[in-house]
Every structure is written in C-alpha cells, then in structure tokens.
Amino acid sequence: MVNSLPRRFADVGELEEFMTRPTPQLERDLSTIDEILVLGVGGKMGPTLARMAQRAGKRVIGVARFSEKGLAEKLGAWGIECVACDLLDRVALERLPRAKNVVFMAGQKFGAAGNAALTWAMNVHVPFMVAEAFRDSRIVAFSTACVYPYVSVDSSGAGEDTPTAPPAGDYANSCVGREQAFLYGSQRYGTPGRLMRLEYAIDMRYGVLHDIAQKVLAGQPVDVTMGHVNVLWQGEANEQALRLLAHCTAPTSPINVSGPDVVSVRALAQELGRLLQKKVTLTGKESPTAWLVDTAAAQRLFGAPRVPLAQMLEWQADWVLRGQPSLGKPTHFETRDGKY
To answer: In Å, what is the CA distance from 32 to each residue of 27, 57, 198?
Structure first.
C-alpha cells in the first residue's frame, strides 16, 4: 500500500488517494483477474474498494441502488462502471453481467431492530439469490465478527473454527444466515469463495476511532461497557478482500480480518484525549467479554498490518480537530443487545 505513511490528510481527496493505492502484493494476486463485479458498492467501504481494484488495472463494475446523490458520478470519474440495481429484484439481478469475480458487500445493519423483515431479506434472501445467479464465479462475501459469540477479552479472539452463535439481535443472526446461504450455494454448485468476517475497518470519516474522537472532542462521555475491539485500517481491509479472490476455497470458508491486537476502548479514549487536549469522561464498566477475532490465518496470508494503531489515532485526532467531513454513520460499537 505505501512505503511511508503521511503525517496527515489535508482533505477527503488525499485520504481516498492514499487509501486506494494498490500494493505490489495486490497486483500480483490479481494478475490473472480481468474484471470484478462489486455488489453493494454504495456502502461505506464499497467506493474505496472499487477504486483500489480499478487502480490495480482491473475493469470494475459497481452495482448498487445509487440512492446517494452524486455517488455514481464520483465512481464514474474514477473509471468504475456503474449499474443501478435493487438486489432484492430477482429479474434485475439476473440481468447483471456475469463477471467471473464477485465481491459481495450488500447488507442491512442499521435499522435492523425496527425492520426485521427487510434485514432478513437483505442479509439472507439476497445472498441466496446471488449464490445461485453467480454460481460460476468466485465470490468473496463480506461478513462480520458479529456471527461469533462474545469471547473473553483476555483471549486472542474467536478463531474461524469457533461455532457461530451470536448473543442477540436480528442483524447478527441474519449474518449467520448470509454465510449459510453462500455456503449452501458453494456446496451445491462448487462455487469457490471466502466469507470475510471483518471487524471494524478504520476510515477517518467513520469507525470506532472516529466515534470516540467525536465524543471526546465534544466533551461527551465514552461508554466502555463494550470495552475491547479489534481495528484495521480500511485500506488494508479493502486490499485483503480483493486479494481473497486469489485465495478462494471450494466450498467457501471463513477468514477473520482485522487488526491483531485486542484494543481497550478506555485506552483509545485516553490517547485521543491526550492528542485532542481534551478531558475524557468515561461511563459504564468494561464487560469481561466482547466481539473479538483471532486474525492469525489472515496474517499468514497477507502479513502483519502496515498501518499501526498509533498512526491511525494521530490521523483521527487531526481529522476531527480540523472539522473534516464525517459520514454521519456511527458504528454503535457500544451496543451489546444486538439492536442496531
């Protein structure tokens, strides 16, 4: 991704340029791949993932409803072909080009508690249809650490062999259903793939560090009840998702993607307080368990993360202190009841 890390990002343009730089390792893994279809390109990570693939020399077709004003035009300016499609519409889904490589990023999280039917339709029904429609492709599907039970904060996190058993909520349980839909399709049709169980990608405009920094800057209390997390720079999360196209299995199989360290929310708040020169107020008491993942398998494939946590914290403090843009999409990392 980089040979040296920037001191700061002047604006969104600099942030996205840095975040989407392809590495030699990515270019090597994608050397035999001509085109990539990104389903759900309109989400938080989709645009930068698509741009990274395009900068690596691939034809990229981005599919979404494109309800966000100007997004299709922005992606088009980056050389990404945009196709508007409601993935819940089976007829429209069947009309999509049959690319040999698919990255599936669609899903429903926020608002899940208030609209369980839509959550289950997006997170289970759509994957089932995609698994059938793209049976002859390779499919890397974004999943989440929320499919796991909570594990001890003194552990290295849940491994890929940990049985899925979410503690609560339609979102987490429907994400188990999403994995099972892709697994069923892979078993039935021999479709190679990977299920990428991601925990907390970090972008300056959203994410756990952004949420905590905003609260500290505003003098609001930081809830430490969900007291530990794993985090990874979004550029590296995007890179690993794309590189997984070259590391698919048949049938599809899970892989955890995040940073290797169990990070204290209390420590994050205190360090951001120091960087922002703000008093930190904490609320709640750390639970002995959290959603945490063991990323040893990903590190064997991709190596250790190149962007350290300390650098992300410095970038984040600088970003919010200068009033740079936010996506306005809190992670709700504090939530333990599964209601988003």
So the answer is: 9, 11, 25
Is the distance from CB of 269 to CB of 237 less than 8 angstroms? Answer: no
From CA 206, how far away is CA 299, in angstroms rounded? 25
Q: In this structure, are strands 59-64 and 101-104 parallel, antiparallel, or unpaired? A: unpaired
- Cα(159)–Cα(320) distance, rounded to whole angstroms? 34
The model carries a pTM of 0.96
Token representation of residue 28: 């090597």
Query: Which pLDDT value is given to residue 115?
Result: 85
Is the Cβ–Cβ distance between 21 and 235 less than 8 Å?
A: yes
- How many CB atoms neighbour CB 163 within 10 A? 8
C-beta of residue 230 within 8 angstroms of C-beta of residue 199 = yes
Sequence spans of domains, the chain: 12-321
CA-to-CA distance for 124 and 178, rounded, in angstroms? 5
CB atoms within 10 A of CB 80: 23
Do the Cβ atoms of 284 and 223 come closer than 8 Å?
yes
- 12-321: CATH topology is Rossmann fold (3.40.50)
Return the structure tokens found at 115: 């609209």
Among residues 218, 215, 141, 228, the alpha carbon closest in space to that of 182 is found at 141
Instruction: Supply 215's token pair.
Output: 């609260």
Q: What count of other Cβ atoms lies within 10 Å of the Cβ of residue 175?
A: 29
- Rounded CA gap, 180 and 124, in Å? 8
pLDDT per position as a tens digit, 232-280: 999 999 999 999 999 999 999 999 999 999 999 999 999 999 999 999 9
Contact status, residue 213 vs residue 317, Cβ threshold 8 Å: yes
How far apart, in whole angstroms, are the C-alpha atoms of residue 99 and residue 85? Answer: 15
